[in-house]
Amino acid sequence: MSDEETPMRDLAALLWPWAVWAVLLLALTLVFSQISPAMARITTDTLIKLVIVTGLYIFVGNSGILSFGHGAFLIVAAYASAWVTIPLAMKGVILPGLPEVLRGLQLSPLGGLLTGMAVAGGLGLLAGIPLMRLSGIAASIATFAFFIVISVIYNNWTDWTKGTASLVGLPTWVGPWAALAAALVALMIAWIFQNSRAGLLLRASREDLVAAHGAGIRVMRLRLLAFVLSATVAGAGGVMLGHNNGALTTANNVYLNLSFIVIAMLVVGGIRSLSGVVVGTLALSVLAEIFRRFETGVEIGGMMLQIPGGSREVLLGLCMLLALIMRPDGLSRGRELPVPGFLRGGRAKAAKTETEALQ
Amino acid sequence: MTPHLLIDQAVVTYGAVRALNQISIHAAKGETVALIGPNGAGKSSLLLAIAGVVPLRSGAMRLDGRDLAGQEPEQRVGLGISLVPETRDVFKKLSTHENLLIGASRRRLSRAQILADADRIYALFPRLAERHAHMAGFLSGGEQQMLAIGRALMACPGLLMLDEPSLGLAPVVTDAVYAAIAALRDQGTTILLVEQNAARAFSVCDRAYLIQAGQVIEEGRAEALSARGSVETVLFGYADAGKEMTQ
Amino acid sequence: MSFLQMLIDAASVGGLYALTAIGIGLIFGVIGLVNFAYGEYIMVGAYVLLLSAGLYWPFAICAVLIFVVLFALASDFLVFRQVRRAPPETLMIVSFGLSFMIQHVWVVMFGSLTRTVNFLPAINHSVEIGGLRIAGVSLLQIAATVLLTTVLALFINYTRIGYQMRAVSENPRMARLVGVNSNRVIAVAFAISAVLAVTVTVLFVAQTGSMTPFFGVSLTMIGFVATVIGGMGSLPGCALGGFLVGTVTTILQMVLPPHLQPFREAFVFTSVILMLLVRPQGLIAVRSAWERV
Question: Which residues on A lie below 8 Å from C35 (Cβ)?
């Protein structure tokens, strides 16, 4: 092998797992978005969830701290984007309580997306500075309390959010392809972060906080970095949710249940690997869809099978519990896709053993 | 006659590491058996496996001919197996007295009978009687060791396993602990004693196994083993070095 | 006079919160589980009251007691025992999943709309003591809290299961090595937490007369806040935390201007974050519960 070849091959080896998932997702999107408009919607929805789960994973997978607070980033990002993208004519009617500056502002969808991500990232920074000092279950509880605070505020701040009523008029620009693009970018960001110096150091600290401190790793700073990045990516998912539905509401604990589903997807897939993110999201989305079909009635061999309304959530909850009980490390067991032999060079191998040693 | 305790070809692994490699030992009723060997030889793993907190990968363990496979640790206590672990693990936030009472968890006795048993432990270790109302976390290392042994005795064990009972103790305290072990031996309790201090172990045991890398490399009566100098070879890698220790 | 009135209101609301907090704190102390499904113990009990409407009230309460205790034991046996060795965060998700599932089972069975029942209307009558008008239910709440916490404290400190419970909490492996049947001890802890839940159910339903499959969530949240403030795993701390949250909520209700009223919960949960940052061991320090983490 020549010397010029090695860096290219290393890069290919590094990107291999991402590339495999990208091709798979592309193929799935191609097939399912063509079947029917209903399937296209489900595809979009799944891909958006994938963005959110990936965002959550960037923090949880690398720091080892389970955040129950990412629902807050979905909320703030979704509403921020709504405030700047709802058409001017409607905004005056729907949200008369909005300040003059916002009421006169209308940005492109991309502007809305970036606004939402910026707000989520900013909130991540503000909340992260105190929260990142905590570890273990204390951190999980504090992030959960943070979520409740944000959700109570948005629930009751009706001048701006309409609370439990619906905020309508969001341009619906999100379709399967936009969602796919977002998911691929999110996965790429997560993959790069996880293999970056910061990501590796943070993973090392996950295993032994004391030793990491002893080795001079500034754990709080790394955690904060991961938290802000994670909030930003999750925020992108929140924005897309709004622009997929065209409406936002805080009624019926939607964000609480959504946070729970998203956390469950991550945990069922396996908290410790990006492959777990994809596997968990796809698995639970497929199950949810199957159960939804059964709720409306399915014909099997001339027999009409129908389960009572509402049992979809029951079955979904049951599947999650079973998965957690039988595979506590997640479906992926924390492993990434193996890199094929022809891509494994000397340096890639060294990097891999280094990663394993850190883990 | 079936031995009281029989370990046959036991294998214990932690991930890729083999802590016990087809080890076989036995102990007759009332016998005091020492397990001697360097750090990491697998002595503690063997005791933990017998107590049931570490699973066997293969092999068998029998108590009075009865297979121990599938018996939970708390059930084994009911069968008469008690372990005093190396880390002692007294319940720091329970009083000394409660630590003793909890040792009788497996026995269906009246409160009066349990209290009578506790009094016997206090007679064995008078230091504990003085401190019966203290939180165990405030006891000294030696007192915690006495309490851990007393707690194990409260289960009325047929087989008492002691892991490094003299570790980190002052010589005077070690003497007290060994006096108690000798007394138990004389009462007919079967004892399995893990000890680095071979001289101490030989002073009370009938028979000893030398263990290295998860296997028995030599077995015999205490006097025979110390005469042959095998102990030094196992513990220090060459003969003679430990002569002073064994004298 | 209004200050005294407020004090009694705070004590009665706080009592309800304290009972909830102790139910959650007890389980956390023993096995390190933040049990979100605790709110569902309260919720399912309310529906048993709904179904037993018309029964003489002591029978109705007995029915609730039996059902909820069995329900809690089943949740331990079928779910939590299966993941006993998982880290606390995983346990938290499992309990969240269980809570979500139970709620939707109840939606399937009873619908998601509010159901009402007229249970023990007599206790809502007010009594006058020294010029103060006090609702009977407030007095009951205070009495039940005092009684149950005292009994529980005696139980944990002076009975055999009590010290076994403390031993399992401190060192589960060693507890088994001395012969403690930890599964039984944990089951007792679940049964006790169910009894506390039933008390909350009865008082709550008698007071409001209404229920939905989701009403347990807000009570769990509040109990959970009280638990954190008091120091998880410390039972006196949980009781104190409950009373504190009750008092703060009552005060906020009085002093906050109307347009800020809806944000009351936000203030309460902010205090949780502050508490975890400033004094993570809670008001009453119990190290062991946190050292397991």
Answer: none
Residue A33 and residue A43 in contact, taking contact as beta carbons nearer than 8 Å: yes
Residue C236's closest CA among C149, C147, C141, C146?
C149
Nearest CA in chain C to A253: C214
Residue pair B212/B201 in contact by the 8 Å Cβ criterion: no
Domains contained in chain B, CATH given:
5-90+150-246 (3.40.50.300)
**Reported pTM:** 0.84
- Residue type at C204 in one-letter notation: F
- How many Cβ atoms are within 10 Å of C291's Cβ, its own excluded? 8
Cα distance between residue B222 and residue B191, in whole Å: 14
A264 touches chain C (CB under 8 A): yes
Compare CB distances from C104 to A130, A131, A314 and report the shortest one's residue. Answer: A314
For B59, which DSSP code? E
Q: Which residue type, as a one-letter code, is found at position B81?
A: I
Q: What is the rounded CA–CA span in Å between residue B96 and residue B99?
A: 5
Mind listing the pLDDT tens digit of every residue in chain A (359 residues)? 444 556 667 777 778 888 888 889 898 888 888 888 888 888 899 999 999 999 999 999 898 888 889 999 999 999 999 888 888 888 878 888 888 888 778 888 888 899 999 999 999 999 998 888 887 777 888 898 899 899 988 888 888 888 778 888 888 888 888 889 999 999 999 999 988 888 888 888 877 777 777 777 788 888 999 999 999 999 999 999 998 888 888 777 788 888 888 988 888 888 888 888 998 999 988 888 888 888 887 777 777 777 777 788 888 888 888 888 888 777 878 777 777 766 665 544 544 444 454 44
Inter-residue contact B193 to B163 (CB < 8 Å)? no
Contacts of C82 in chain A (CB under 8 A): 325
Tokens of A180: 């796919």
Set out the domains of chain A in order of their start, with CATH numbers: 5-257 (1.10.3470)
Residue A328 touches chain C, beta carbons under 8 Å: yes
Q: What is the 8-class DSSP label of residue C159?
A: S
Residue B62 DSSP SS3 = strand
Please report how the helices C2-31 and C38-51 are oriented relative to each other, as an axis angle in degrees rounded to 10: 110
Contact partners, residue B162, CB within 8 Å, separation at least 6: B84, B149, B181, B191, B192, B193, B194
**Backbone region of residue A333 per phi and psi (left: phi > 0; alpha: psi in -120 to 50; beta: other values):** left
Q: Does ipTM top 0.85?
A: yes
